[in-house]
Amino acid sequence: MVCPGGQGLSTYTHVSDQWSTYGTKIIVPTAREDHYALDDFLGNATDLPITEHATDTHGATLIDFALFDLVGKALTPRMRDLTRVALVRDDTPTEIGKLYPHAGPLLGARWNEDLISGCWPDLLRMAGSLKYGQATASLIVGKWSAASRQNTLAAALKEWGMLRRTLHTAKYLSDPVYRRKISRQLNKGESLHALRRDLYYAQQGTITKPHLEQQTEQAWCLTVLTNSVVAWTTEYYSRAVIELRAQGREVPDEVLAHISPGHSDNINFFGVINVDVEAELAELDGAGWRPLRPARLRQLGLTT
Question: Where is the Tn3 transposase DDE domain positioned along the sequence (predicted)?
Fold first, then answer.
């Protein structure tokens, strides 16, 4: 999006597997999006029992993997460039090679269990601060991501994140159902991005407010409108299915699982304006002019 002065900004949104948007945050485009992944996740004010966060590879760092696990949630990114991903093992290369002849060579480093066990109480305290709102996730992720290697707690956090990433990668590589589930969730988010662009056509999609609080309100208005369209479309899809089945048509539930309520083809964005031509013509004077509006003339100071 574009804000006043031609400056850009980003809107970070969270989409549930039910197609509803439950989190919206305005961030500067130079900030890493993964720093904000946990904010609305932990601050979820809806009744949705959110347990898992799907994202692309760039939205998942070692810090994110660690913090998601420490607060009892799952981070499930779509993995790419797996040859560049450092995976860890808990034994010697020889022993790992015997146990896992195919995957063993991918486990290039041995994880530092002593480092994690020594910092474990501090890691749990950090997780508690996040879970109970004593600190924002974006602040902690940003601070620890930029921390030096000499910082023991930051090193332990990244070490734990490396272990969690290894477990996720192993499941991602071995389980095609798991991969498809992640891709489906990400596709839902992309579909709603397209719907938001269609809805936000006024001012050419520009955020018109100059202050963060006002920009956030404007972004949330778009979220409310998006959720309204999704809810409306879902209801009428359901009515259409009931009608088709009443007519004897076969509509399998397996097919319905692949139908998206995030489309915009059924939405008239510009409304319908009905013009009574005969009534309009009857209001014209003999010269063909429309009558002036006295209230407007009084506002202009042209009459009393």
Answer: 6-271
Strand partners, 110: 89
**Of 196, 201, 233, which Cα lies nearest the Cα of 24?**
196
**Rounded alpha-carbon distances, angstroms, from residue 68 to 180, 184, 259:** 21, 21, 30
Give the pLDDT confidence of 3-34 residue by residue, as tens digits.
555 566 777 788 888 888 888 877 777 777 77
Determine the Cα–Cα distance for residues 46 and 227; give it in Å rounded to an integer. 13
Q: Which two three-digit tokens encode residue 123?
A: 């890691």
> Kind and range of the H or E element at 212?
helix 212-246
What distance in Å separates the CA atoms of residue 298 and residue 304, rounded to the nearest whole number?
A: 6
Both structure tokens of 269: 């964005």
pLDDT digits (tens, 9 = 90+) for 134-170: 878 888 877 777 777 678 988 999 999 999 998 998 8
First-to-last alpha carbon distance for the chain, in angstroms, is 47
The tens digit of pLDDT for each residue in 110-121 reads 888 899 999 999
Q: Tell which residue, 145, 127, 133, 165, has the closest CA to residue 40.
A: 133
Structure tokens, 170 = 């192993």
Instruction: Give strand pairing partners of 77.
Output: 55
Residues 77, 161: Cα–Cα separation, whole Å = 13
For 185-229, the pLDDT digits (tens) are 888 888 888 888 877 765 556 667 767 777 778 887 888 888 888
Q: How many CB atoms lie within 10 A of CB 37?
A: 27
Query: What is the reported pTM?
Result: 0.73
Closest-CA residue to 56 (of 83, 77, 35, 76):
77
Percent share of the chain, pLDDT over 90: 13
Rg (CA), the chain: 27
Phi-psi region of 300 (alpha: psi -120 to 50; beta: other; left: phi over 0): alpha
Can you tell me whether residue 82 is helix, strand or coil? Answer: helix
